């Protein structure tokens, strides 16, 4: 059973990575309802790149398991896995449980 | 202070690197721009590209070898271009960069690398057209083309890649953003660029203060005695401490001073340094020490004052996290690195620190510790002599005044860029900028080399003036902290006045430009022969002849010499 807290920790660590490249006023909030990749979201395509790479690395470190977040174009819809932090956590959990 | 501007020119997407450079909290603060993505050569060849409308403090020209050297691209496809062809193309690339060398104060060029996953010709990789061999030759050629360029610096990309490991090149990053490197590589690049700019601004750390027990040696000397310290010998921990001492000693060859601040009985600790046969560092390797039971913060302040340094020049190494936290909190200007608990990491932690990076290394640097040893002898003499004038006389101080020459230009530029305290205007110039400034007829500069009975301090002072009709304007007035307070500064001012009289100049002016560090210069101006005319402006009407200070013997080589 995948521990949701650990997945959340991995996602928040990845958000920290994105924030390192942003000015303080544009930092992404580490909260479940934070909108990520959406018309109103914070994350541009470079931010998304950082997020994807950082999550995959962190998950690899924490769970010793590789996941591929670029499969099936997860950011294609506004309700997709990258729409907000909660959906992203759920998506990573699903990938880890596959 | 305004952020420094850096332009990133690359065949790949540097926007993420720009993000790290712009938002990393370390100094200096930077404002990065990226040139048009994927067009490094076009950007460099096109002076009317809008990107060149701005003036930059630095350029980073970072390319993948296969993107700018066509024959190397062939090489990666297992074709066999000749090495001459490849190196000719490297020369052409170097020529393009050289054409642009005046577009920024500093240019950084990372060495070329290829992903480690690329096996190339494997067994044949170090043969004539093997990829590893060719790449090493290309990097060597690039380095040799810029060897004598004072504002172009090669950065070692291999270090970034090795420190990240097999994931340094990240295919996912490439497919998502056209950035071939992993985030951790880009973070390291940002750190190194900032360190390089600090080094070029003369902000290299000058003093490492170390604790003793469990830092310089294993064990508490007051408890176990010097005979039972863990140091050297056939003992893994002892060897680690010994290697750490060797690494510290190696820093002194780069002009970095060592000091001790330790809670101990001084006699016991010094006995350990003198008596323990495994001690690699000897008493004479330390410029100063404070070994007592007082607060370390106060001891550090005293020691730094004794050495005439600023707190921002100091690194403090202590195994005790409580002492580190206390020093860090009270003296935030000091660099207090998080220190590993594992003794085997002491040496590599020290040697990996970027705060000792230098842009130039002179003979004076390598002798700095010797100078401070001499200074200790001078200070001990000072305690026996009643007045400063009498003390200076006993030093038998000789100052050689000279004009700028090829032989002293590098040291002069270094003094310009590194001296903070006795510095009138804190003007920073590259060697090219300095040469260009000196080439103007109205500009004059003198160098001051100081020696006394304890040794040669080297070239430690410079004064430059700009002549504007009947006014002489002091532009640079710089003296190393090693020698100020010995009337050298009075001699420097006397030299300006004597020159002014010879030139028929009626007024000498010096505009003090305050910084966080140059108050010693203001203190001197206040007690000098110049008069304050408000707003940090100091002036002297040239009515009387100004004599050199009595206490100093002066050898003035400039009297018969025209400006070089």
Q: Summarize the main sheet of chain B.
A: 9 strands, mixed
CATH-derived architecture of chain A: Orthogonal Bundle
Percentage beta strand of chain A: under 5%
Beta strand count of chain A: 0
Number of separate domains of chain A: 1
Oligomer, anyone? heterodimer
Round the mean pLDDT of chain A to the nearest integer and report it: 86
Low-confidence stretches of chain B: none
Strand-pairing-aware structural class of chain A: mainly alpha
The sequence of SSEs of chain A as H and E is: HHH
What low-confidence regions of chain A span 5 or more consecutive residues with pLDDT below 50?
Answer: none
Query: What is CATH's topology name of chain A?
Result: Non-ribosomal Peptide Synthetase Peptidyl Carrier Protein, Chain A
Query: How many distinct helices of chain B?
Result: 22
Would you tell me which CATH topology of the largest domain in chain B applies?
A: Rossmann fold
Helix content estimate of chain B? 25-40%
Overall average residue pLDDT of chain B: 90
What can be said about the biggest beta sheet of chain A?
Answer: none
CATH level 4 superfamily of the largest domain in chain B: SGNH hydrolase
Radius of gyration of CA atoms of chain A, rounded to a whole number:
12 Å
Shape of chain A: globular
CATH class of the largest domain in chain B: Alpha Beta
């Amino acid at each position: 059973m995948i521990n949701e807290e650990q997945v959340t920790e991995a996602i928040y660590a990845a958000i920290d990575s994105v924030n390192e490249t942003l000015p303080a006023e544009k930092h992404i909030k580490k909260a479940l309802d934070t909108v990520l990749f959406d018309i109103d979201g914070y994350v541009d395509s470079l931010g998304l790149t950082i997020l994807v790479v950082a999550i995959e690395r962190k998950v690899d470190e924490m769970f010793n398991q590789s996941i591929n977040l670029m499969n099936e174009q997860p950011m294609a819809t506004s309700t997709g896995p990258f729409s907000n932090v909660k959906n992203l956590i759920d998506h990573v959990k699903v990938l880890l449980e596959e | 202070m305004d952020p420094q501007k850096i332009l990133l020119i690359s065949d790949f997407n540097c926007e993420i690197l720009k993000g790290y450079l712009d938002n990393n909290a370390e100094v200096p603060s930077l404002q990065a721009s990226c040139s048009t993505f994927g067009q490094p050569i076009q950007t460099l060849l096109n002076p009317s590209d809008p990107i060149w409308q701005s003036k930059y403090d630095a350029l980073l020209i970072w390319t993948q070898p296969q993107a700018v050297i066509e024959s190397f691209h062939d090489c990666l496809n297992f074709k066999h271009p000749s090495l001459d062809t490849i190196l000719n193309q490297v020369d052409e690339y170097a020529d393009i960069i050289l054409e642009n060398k005046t577009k920024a104060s500093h240019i950084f060029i990372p060495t070329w690398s290829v992903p480690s996953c690329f096996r190339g010709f494997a067994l044949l990789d170090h043969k004539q057209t093997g990829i590893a061999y060719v790449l090493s030759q290309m990097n060597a050629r690039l380095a040799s083309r810029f060897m004598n360029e004072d504002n172009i610096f090669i950065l070692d990309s291999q270090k970034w890649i090795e420190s990240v490991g097999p994931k340094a090149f990240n295919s996912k990053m490439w497919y998502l953003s056209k950035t071939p490197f992993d985030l951790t590589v880009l973070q390291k690049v940002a750190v190194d660029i900032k360190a390089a700019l600090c080094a070029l601004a003369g902000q290299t750390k000058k003093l490492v203060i170390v604790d003793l027990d469990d830092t310089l040696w294993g064990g508490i000397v007051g408890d176990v005695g010097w005979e039972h310290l863990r140091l050297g010998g056939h003992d893994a921990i002892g060897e680690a401490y010994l290697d750490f001492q060797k690494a510290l000693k190696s820093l002194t060859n780069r002009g970095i001073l060592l000091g001790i601040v330790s809670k101990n009985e001084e006699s016991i600790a010094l006995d350990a340094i003198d008596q323990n046969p495994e001690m690699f560092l000897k008493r004479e390797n330390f410029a100063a020490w404070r070994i007592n039971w007082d607060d370390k913060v106060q001891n550090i302040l005293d020691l730094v004052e004794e050495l005439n340094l600023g707190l921002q020049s100091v690194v403090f190494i202590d195994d005790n996290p409580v002492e580190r936290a206390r020093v860090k909190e009270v003296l935030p200007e000091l660099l207090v690195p998080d220190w590993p608990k594992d003794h085997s990491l002491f040496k590599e932690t020290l040697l990996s620190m970027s705060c000792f990076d230098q842009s130039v290394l002179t003979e004076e640097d390598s002798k700095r510790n010797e100078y401070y040893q001499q200074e200790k002898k001078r200070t001990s003499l000072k305690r026996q002599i009643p007045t400063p004038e009498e003390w200076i006389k006993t030093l038998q101080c000789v100052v050689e005044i000279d004009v700028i020459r090829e032989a002293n230009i590098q040291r002069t530029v270094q003094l310009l860029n590194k001296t903070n305290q006795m510095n009138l205007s804190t003007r920073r110039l590259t060697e090219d900028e300095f040469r260009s400034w000196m080439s103007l007829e109205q500009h004059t500069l003198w160098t001051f080399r100081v020696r006394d009975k304890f040794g040669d301090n080297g070239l430690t002072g410079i004064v430059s003036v700009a002549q504007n009709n009947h006014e002489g304007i002091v532009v640079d007035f710089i003296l190393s902290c090693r020698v100020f307070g010995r009337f050298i500064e009075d001699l420097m001012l006397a030299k300006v006045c004597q020159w002014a009289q010879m030139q028929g100049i009626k007024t000498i002016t010096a505009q003090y430009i305050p910084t966080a560090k140059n108050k010693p210069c203001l203190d001197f101006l206040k007690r000098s022969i110049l008069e304050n005319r408000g707003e940090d402006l100091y002036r002297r009407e040239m009515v009387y002849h100004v004599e050199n200070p009595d206490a100093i013997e002066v050898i003035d080589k400039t009297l018969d010499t025209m400006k070089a």
